């Protein structure tokens, strides 16, 4: 009984370790903006029979990984994109196509949707839960007539401002529009920051969306510091565009502020200002201070909204296993000058999105992989290093050995326990047979009673990497 309890503890603690490993990978993606090729091994580990696992490994994991590394080593990304592969299993060639643009506030979603619509003969459905209402064009920052470029936008300013338009209402109307667009051979493009509306449409079994439609999700991501700057600039522009006057037109002190268009950032803060402002008699300085405080609140609350939007997207990836094309717009929004933004938009942003949608519409993924795109900087003059980041029990050692036999590479172990000598079974070190003659560095090298730190690992790894590169070998760093 005691032995069984110990074995159960090992299993439980290993489960906890795996969760921590996955959390760390997510943190590196979210906080450090790492661009990670995310392979979801859907069926490989469901079988116990070796021949079945081997076949699935070769066909649906190893080949996409080889393609990724080969493109990386050849700089075969035109200095624009990295491709992130996801394994998919459903035959979706017979499904109708729908494109989603999922973004945080302030990342150019409507410009992208219009560009895609004009290129692919698309129709746009707005999924922003506030912009569905009529009125408050400035406060809700609706796309302007000029920006639409003649492309019609559905569910944009359609709903009465005092209504309570729910996610279910959105789903019902969206299905009607989607079917109408498809009958006219148009591509439905759903765009907006309210991911709860999109989740309801896709996940609610009432709509049978996954059964009927094949989805292409594009997630536009921008560094938080850049987003914050854009929020501040945009709010100031809206104020200069007479935001306060627009709020004043429909301001009713005792109105219901928990539903409809009044329940929006910008209106709530300005309504608070208007309530106080009317009680201040000719004190212009006090009014300015209160107004400035309201403007600051709009900026602060918009930043919180962005964080919530990004959290929802991450939840859809982690919990619902949504496969998203993740576009990290590194340089597009760093400049304020329009001509610089326009050039960056065309050269490093729009074209990858066009490629993604074109491949999606043509079923040009061979029913095996979807490509996830990241915008990157010029790295042609840098030395190449490959990292395999995986949770315990997902075949990382096997993949690294397969790479070495294909690319003339050397392996550095980054598992902090497997670096120590001894306890081969407990630490689950790769066996001599599994190595297939490939040497593994920092595997069983460190004295078991030593305190080998992350800094020590960096120093030794750097030495190994430089030695490998001198011999024209690819350094592969692998571990949990």
TrEMBL record:
One matching Pfam family: IPPT
What name appears for this protein in its UniProt entry? Isopentenyltransferase
Q: Which GO terms describe its biological process?
A: cytokinin biosynthetic process; tRNA modification
Which region is the signal sequence?
A: none
Instruction: Cite a GO CC annotation.
Output: mitochondrion
Its Gene Ontology molecular function terms? ATP binding; tRNA dimethylallyltransferase activity
Organism (species): Solanum commersonii
Against InterPro entries, the record matches this protein to:
Dimethylallyltransferase, P-loop_NTPase
Lineage, top ranks: Eukaryota, Viridiplantae, Streptophyta, Embryophyta, Tracheophyta
Keyword annotations from UniProtKB, A to Z: ATP-binding, Cytokinin biosynthesis, Nucleotide-binding, Transferase
What family is this protein classified in? Belongs to the IPP transferase family.
């Amino acid at each position: 009984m005691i032995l069984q309890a110990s074995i159960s503890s090992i299993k439980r603690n290993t489960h906890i370790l795996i969760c921590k490993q996955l959390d760390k990978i997510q943190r590196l993606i979210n906080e450090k903006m790492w661009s990670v090729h995310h392979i979801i091994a859907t069926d490989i580990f469901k079988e116990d029979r070796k021949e079945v696992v081997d076949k699935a490994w070769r066909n649906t994991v190893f080949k996409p990984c080889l393609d990724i590394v080969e493109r990386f080593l050849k700089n075969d990304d035109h200095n624009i994109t990295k491709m992130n592969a996801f394994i998919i299993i459903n035959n979706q060639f017979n499904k109708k196509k729908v494109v989603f643009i999922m973004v945080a506030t302030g990342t150019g979603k409507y410009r992208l949707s219009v560009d895609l619509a004009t290129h692919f003969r698309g129709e746009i459905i707005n999924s922003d839960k506030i912009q569905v209402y009529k009125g408050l064009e400035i406060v809700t920052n609706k796309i302007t007539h000029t920006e639409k470029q003649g492309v019609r936008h559905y569910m944009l300013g359609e709903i009465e401002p005092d209504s309570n338009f729910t996610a279910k209402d959105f789903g019902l109307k969206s299905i009607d529009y989607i079917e109408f667009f498809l009958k006219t051979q148009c591509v439905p493009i759903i765009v907006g920051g309210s991911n709860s509306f999109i989740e309801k449409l896709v996940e609610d079994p009432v709509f049978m969306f996954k059964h009927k439609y094949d989805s292409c999700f594009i997630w536009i991501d921008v560094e938080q510091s850049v987003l914050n700057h854009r929020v501040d600039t945009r709010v100031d522009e809206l104020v200069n565009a007479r935001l306060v006057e627009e709020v004043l037109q429909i301001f009713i002190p005792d109105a219901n502020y928990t539903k409809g268009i009044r329940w929006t950032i910008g209106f709530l803060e300005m309504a608070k200002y208007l309530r106080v402002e009317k009680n201040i008699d000719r004190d212009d300085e006090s009014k300015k201070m209160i107004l400035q405080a309201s403007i600051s609140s709009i900026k602060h609350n918009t930043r919180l909204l962005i964080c919530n939007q990004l959290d929802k997207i991450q939840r859809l990836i982690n919990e619902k296993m949504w496969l998203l094309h993740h576009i990290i717009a590194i340089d597009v929004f760093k400049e304020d000058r329009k001509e610089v933004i326009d050039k960056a938009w065309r050269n490093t942003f729009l074209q990858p999105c066009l490629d993604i949608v074109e491949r999606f519409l043509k079923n040009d993924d061979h029913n095996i992989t979807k490509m996830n795109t990241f915008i990157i900087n010029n790295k042609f003059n840098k030395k190449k290093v490959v990292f395999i980041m995986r949770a315990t029990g997902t075949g990382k050692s096997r993949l690294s050995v397969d790479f070495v036999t294909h690319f003339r590479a050397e392996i550095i172990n980054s598992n902090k326990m497997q670096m120590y000598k001894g306890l081969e079974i407990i630490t689950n070190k790769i066996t001599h047979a599994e190595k297939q003659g490939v040497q593994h560095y920092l595997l069983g090298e460190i004295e078991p009673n030593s305190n080998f730190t992350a800094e020590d690992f960096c120093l030794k790894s750097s030495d190994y990497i430089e030695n490998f590169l001198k011999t024209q070998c690819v350094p592969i760093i692998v571990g949990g």
